[in-house]
Amino acid sequence: MQHHDSQLRSQLRNPPSGLGPALACALIAQIGNVLLAAVCAAQVPGGYRVRSWVFLAALLWSLAGTVFLLIRTAGSPARDQANAIGLRRIALWLVSTWVWPILVLWPRSASRDRPPR
Question: Would you say residue 38 has pLDDT above 80?
């Protein structure tokens, strides 16, 4: 039991090396998603209750996309760490968290056949 606890603590202190930049981009993109969900909900006609449900639905949609993308990228090999966090990658995360059902249907083997950038 003691060994298992120390191993778990070690994993919590040292996340997988490839997940750090992805997690940072995901968190920054999720902040943008909150703002985008608020703007979208404000445009919906109706009372406060309708707008709050639209905001909640949009927020949960983007959060599900973020979790899906983090799970999908956690197993991928770490790419160029120097350019891992940037405006382009954050924008890609922001867009991908909204269109994640397309990525679910996308064949996983096709994405492995492409050469890394």
Answer: yes
